[in-house]
Write a structure and sequence with these properties.
There is one protein chain. By secondary structure, this protein is an all-alpha fold. Helices cover about 70% and strands about 0% of the residues. It has helices at about 5-35, 40-60, 70-75, 85-105, 110-115, 120-125, 135-155, 165-175, 185-205, 210, 235-250, 255-275, 275-295, 305-325, 325-335, 335-345, 350-360, 375-380, 390-420, 430-440, 455-465, 470-480; strands at about 210-215, 225, 480-485, 485. It is globular, with a radius of gyration of 25 Å. The protein starts with a helix and ends with a strand.
Amino acid sequence: MTQNDLIGIGYYGGLALLFAVAAIIGLGVTLQVDRAIGRWTACLMVPAMLLGTALSSVLSGRDLKYAFSNIEGIAFGADGGGSGVLRLVTAFMLAVGGATVIANLYGRGRQTRRGLAPADADRQAQAVPAGSGQALLVAYAVFFLSNAVFNAAFGTKPAFTHNVLYLPVAFAAVYVWRNEPVGNFVRLARWMLIAFMLASLLLAVAKPSLAVQPAYKGWVPGLSVRLWGLGSNPNSIGPLALLLLLLEWMQPSRRWPVRVVVAGLALAVLVMAQSKTAWAAGLAMAVVVAWYRLRKAPTGGARVGFVLALIAGLLLLCVPLMTMDLGRLWDKLAATSVGTDVATLSGRAQIWAAALGAWQTSPVFGYGPAAWGPEHRAVLGMPFAFSAHNQFLQSMSSAGTLGLVSLLAYLGLLGLWCLRAATATRGASMALYVLVLLRCITEAPLAPSTLFNGDAITHLILFRLALIGVPKRARAALAPARFRGVAAG
């Protein structure tokens, strides 16, 4: 063995030793972090994501004076603002989220801290039924891998984007603490959303070029502006306003003046954002909430008055439709800008055709994560198409058939669990599921992208509420607590 060989062995052996020491120290630090704030980890995810979204918008340097000519480009570019500050927020989330996940995997950390010996902790873990959340987590993992990893390796244009890899950490952290009462999670998310909405309205007054799009021809008479606020775009902050209303309904503030202020903030943002999809989703969500609030009689059956009111409402809706000249009404509507938007679905039909073309080129894995990026848009000749504007077509175009199948499976299981959680959440889980499902028609709210946007925040909260809906036999084993009429999960 030569001297160079010995030097090489010593060098790489030293590196291996340093790595081992660093790993041991890192594991120790991780366990200590989780021991100190572990039970608050899931609660901190949404506030940190909202903070990152707000900072991204404020530091983006966007100017909305000319947004009418490049609205999608400004919205797309907003996520890249203030990268240094955003890295700190991302590092915080990865640190606390990763710590609690690693601690959970390492020696049943949570059960041991609660006073159980490791052997007892193992027996308790084995006693928990398989329906305690694992299926939903696995469905999400398969969806994520199909839409962000497999297509990155085997798509038409292989590409790697590190930003999407942070999302599973937040979801895993929420899953780890699924057995904790959900009250603190909802409460912190609600207060952070209140601050987000208030700051958005104040920013519209203090710096309108950053928060308000002028000269907008919308559907609200007399309102010629569109609110972006601290969101990445109006179609992002509008659903967040609905989310705030829903969380306030699920866990009302103790004082009624606060409830009025919260509702006023959310409704002001919802109207000024002029997101037509959010408006339609809001009506559907109201029906879902009313169904769970009013349909049941004290005996457990359906209220006769509610059923009769529902039938009467449908009849009142049908009577004018039967007497109107729908053809003539459509002709008049088509002559307006509103009619043009309806007829062309705001220009989405052309984008949907391009999405199908991308899927046909690579039907198994799709185009890859770079779908609807600069190069793809240039090839398509659609500089305005930053997504497929439909979640199903988005998955098909970027991740192929594999992405679509995993999306359908995940949505199906998510809907089932939200249905199970509906009674415990006063209908909020199903209403939020309806919001996401309706937005899947004209947007791509589940596309893996970044931690810091409204779609990721809504998805994470929906995931947490769905985890309340474990089967009855699993709920009995997990012994969930309750807070103010809402099951903890």
